[in-house]
Amino acid sequence: MSLFTQTFFQHRYAAHAAFKMSEFWERFFFIFTYLMQGSSYSCPRSYAVMHRMHHAYTDTGKDPHSPKFSSNIFSMMWRTRNIYVGILKGILPVEPGFTKNLPKWNGFDIWANSTTSKIAWILLYISFFIIFASSAWWFLLLPVVITMCAFHGAIINWFAHKYGYINFRLKNTSHNLFSVDILMLGELYHNNHYKNPSAINFGKRRHEVDPIYPVILFFKWLGIIRINKTLAVSQQGYKAALCEQN
Questions:
Q1: What is the pTM of this model?
Q2: What share of the chain is helix, strand, coil (3-state, %, to 5)?
Q3: Could you give the C-alpha distances from 159 to 53, 164, 174, 188, in angstroms and in order?
Q4: What three-state secondary structure class fits 43?
């Protein structure tokens, strides 16, 4: 559920505006995302700004999380964390085109990103492990639980820029890591996503299953969201198209 909220709300909705929703549902998913991500909750606005930068500056020195500029996955995670905090606190200069038409709930995000909130979640996780862990070995998973959102992002941005196959030859290192991506809910169709960032279905070939795509269609049927017309935007022209769209 942490990954679902990340790909559905922060990635496809906030960063790429692949669909729209009312203020009521937007705030519902703010709260739902916080409850599912807990201590690793990311502000949707800051997440979206950073992800738009990732697309616009892929594989360059301005890319917030490129394996080309980090010696290992942990140093990349730390670099990403510092850039995210800089965006969140408003101390990192950001081009205006990256900040338009983003979901915003300042009061809620101040609490959700506070040290008090994160410590409360961590204490809750530790208590849960103490009560339910049948072996001390389970505690090795505790750091992953605490950093779940960052852990998901690191898997995608480290491995899917190094390994896998490509459907589209682009001017970046994006790959599709798995041919059937159930594990990461379609996020590992990274090459497909770079070809058309605003598409609601990350799968392009018959065997490429995006588990979130039918959920999006179901939410549309329920009237929770309204799907935008998919933009055929190439990765090379993404920055200009993003600014024009917004």
A1: 0.90
A2: 55, 5, 40
A3: 19, 8, 9, 9
A4: coil
Q: Name the residue with tokens 């995210």.
A: 84
Longest pairwise C-alpha distance within the chain: 54
Pick from 218, 119, 151, 204: which is nearest to 3 by CA?
151
Q: Alpha-carbon distance 34 to 40, whole Å?
A: 9
The alpha carbons of the chain give a radius of gyration, in whole angstroms, of 18
Give the contacts of 218 (CB within 8 A, at least 6 positions apart).
Answer: none
Neighbour count for residue 102 (Cβ, 10 Å): 18
Residues 180, 182, 184: CA angle, nearest 5 degrees: 110
Cβ atoms of 99 and 9 closer than 8 Å: no
Q: Tell me the β-bridge partners of 32.
A: none
Could you read off the pLDDT of 208-225 as tens digits, one per residue?
A: 999 999 999 999 999 999
Phi-psi domain of 203 (left: phi exceeds 0; alpha: psi -120 through 50; beta: other)? beta
Question: Mean pLDDT, the chain, as a whole number?
Answer: 91
**Dihedral sign for Cα atoms in the order 11, 63, 49, 230:** negative
